[in-house]
Amino acid sequence: MRSIIRRTATVVAAGALGLGGLAVAVPALAGNGPFGGPAASSTIFPGGDGPGYGMGNGYGGTHCMGAGLIAEQGALTGAQKATLASIAQREKLAHDLYAAFADRHDAAVFAHIARAETHHLTAVRTLLQRYGVADPTAQRPAGSFTDSAAQATYDRLLKQGDGSLSAALAAGAQIEHDDIAALSAALDGLDAADVEQVYSWLLAASQRHLTAFTS
């Protein structure tokens, strides 16, 4: 299981963003891979986040958003840029928590969804670069966050999930439930097609992950 998690930390940060049918190339995030490591050279969404655990196609295969590219850049307010940074922290929190649970519990769902969260953070980092927003997750080790609230949430849920597999699944469900609420709120009033596209993709993924943890 640990070898599976180690592989999730070496995904892509260059190429094209697979989110629909509008074509815009995105640059490599040199030296700024998904969790503080070097960026690899590949496509941003090479697969691995299918319709969902126990929902027909599992996690592998062609990505559910297809082979299109990211939409055009729009404009973000200061508050929306702050939200984008907070979404990045949420994606890292989810990955780090699920990776930790994969080491503690014999349940493949955690390793699979941790892999998906790696792709999610790569997508958000592309947006951070586009809009000139500092990446709060850059060079942060697993389980470490610049935001005190994110750190407290991680520590609390990690402790909760140590108790049993059912407790870990409940912690995962809580993360996805909170992410759904945050992404739904973040979509309100957006005037940036690329950010809306990524948030919508993340929202759909969180809904699938919530189903995985609760089923």
UniProtKB/TrEMBL annotation:
Signal peptide interval: 1-30
Matches recorded under InterPro entries: DUF2202 (IPR019243), Ferritin-like (IPR012347), Ferritin-like_SF (IPR009078)
Tagged with keyword Signal: yes
UniProtKB keywords: Signal
Pfam family, one: DUF2202
Residue ranges of every copy of the DUF2202 domain listed in the record: 84-214
Record's protein name: DUF2202 domain-containing protein
Lineage, top ranks: Bacteria, Bacillati, Actinomycetota, Actinomycetes, Micromonosporales
